[in-house]
Amino acid sequence: MTTSVLTSAILEARRNGRPALIPFLTGGFPDRESFWPALEELARSGADVIEIGVPFSDPVADGPVVAAASLKALEDGVDLAWILDGLAARRLGVPLVLMSYANPLLQYAWPLTDPSAVLQARVEESLAHFARKAEEAGISGIIVPDMPLEEYGPFLRALAGTSLDPIALVGPNTSPERMARYARVAGGYVYVVSVLGTTGVREGLPQEVVQTLGRARRAFGLPLALGFGIKSPDQLAALGAEPDAVIIGSALLAHLGAGGDCRGFMAPWLAY
Amino acid sequence: MQAYFGEFGGQFVPEVLMPPLEELERAMELILPTAGFREEYASLLAGWAGRPTPLTFCPRLSESLGLRLWLKREDLLHTGAHKVNNTLGQALLARLMGKEALVAETGAGQHGVATAAAAARLGLSAVIFMGEVDVGRQRLNVERMRLLGAEVVPVRDGTRTLKDAINEALRYWLTNQRSTHYCFGTAAGPHPFPTLVRDFQAVIGREARAQFLELGEGLPDLVVACVGGGSNAIGVFHGFLDDPGVGLVGVEAAGTGEPGCHNSAPLNLGRPGILHGQISMLLQTPDGQILPSHSVSAGLDYPGVGPEHAFLAKTGRVRYAMADDSQALAAFRALSAQEGIIPALESAHALAFVLESHASLGKGSKVMVNLSGRGDKDMDIYLGQPQA
Fold this sequence. Notes:
Chain A is α/β, with parallel strands linked by helices.
């Protein structure tokens, strides 16, 4: 099995003595025109991997900042096809991960599925079509925040014929047993959710992050990326937590929304 | 326990919601069958909520329609609708699970009021999320919830109605899962909610079936109920699913009835999709964004539907029809003027189906409509409509 480009990119940053940086940007944010330059600037400003969020009308795992960015993008007419077509026309030089709720992925190729087939077969067929398009667009991994182990089957089968990594999400309440089950099927890196809550900046991170990372370290052979609530390098230092990567979403969206640039946002992290 | 009804259902939720869903499923298996739970639930349903509810014959409408029409009177239940069958069961279960608080969503406010009342009776605190639009059009229910001791939180995201209130309640539960039970209001959402809510609402169908047999009338030819998320309908249908001679009709809200209008009829006008933890029928755009729904009845105003209804539609055991706003308002007036009962606009959709299609139902057929709620709450909406 070839090593995932996502795993390699994170391990490369670790060899340079810092956690890998994974900024998250909602597709089409701050607006349709400035999204692509923002993505390119992130790639030039030290991002090791970039996560791109597919806007959805009902983002239950997201806090107010990502939810608002998502709704604004929808108002601007952004959809999964626009994101994939735009990516297919560019090469950013940084591995990309797509984060999407289940329904936009499911509906992407729904009209192409066989209406006489049972629902689960249509789900798998639609997701498989999406996965091929995502691969062509240069995507390396997929995160689906509303698809836990119980619903993973069709998704894994759809990704099986591609180079895409299914990225597992685990949290403070994920048992070692469930982590072990994810470990058998997941790839790329592990998205470790820092708190019981939604995405969004928090002043302090709970001490239980250290325990969660410890459990994930024992369960997975993949790099661990810590996300939800991450704003500044000081938070990690205060905890003594050592994830292999950090995922920074809401803080970046808020920074860009207030007129800031990507380079200025990334600088303190590169110095960490 | 099965997470799917045929092809529909499942648990499409963030990983961090799986442990509380598993905890709830274990609690259902361990607590619901115990004598302690069953006795206290039965005693509260009888002594506090007002069960059994009567089966009422409608002589004047029967005469004019050429049918024999009965109503199952969930409108007479405490707090004014069938919702309390479920909230009382879930509140009691939550207390036995050691939870201190309930969180719930509400559209029209009926489920919010029923949750707040059950929480007050059982000494739990309650937080109710309600879309800002609904807060505006259901002031009275907001104040009832507050009087009952609940905290009402207006939701300003998205369409600012029921679906967004569910999103916010899910986020709250995700964050406060250790102390709080999510008292879900309809037979939808992630497993095990569709089963849990159905089992608490199944008392409607069990009771109605026994009452019919007691009348010496045999079984009804047709049972009709309105379907939003679908909890009153699944509750009444379950009493008759195994009676092949009993036809079952669920009635969705067609909105204004104009072609292409916003509606609340995903079984008739939607396609399969994933929302709020389940794969079911859904109103959505081609790229999978959830469409705003519309119905004159706030309680039916939801773009999705419980997975068991999607299953029963697919198997053909239940037929799903539609009634539009004006047909429901006509039924609202007819039942009030001719039988002395003001129905909830939700339940008026079920009655509207009977008024519209009585000619094809067969002379003298025995028809039972589940009157899921009373209409006092809808007077402002009724008065705001152009009068026919």
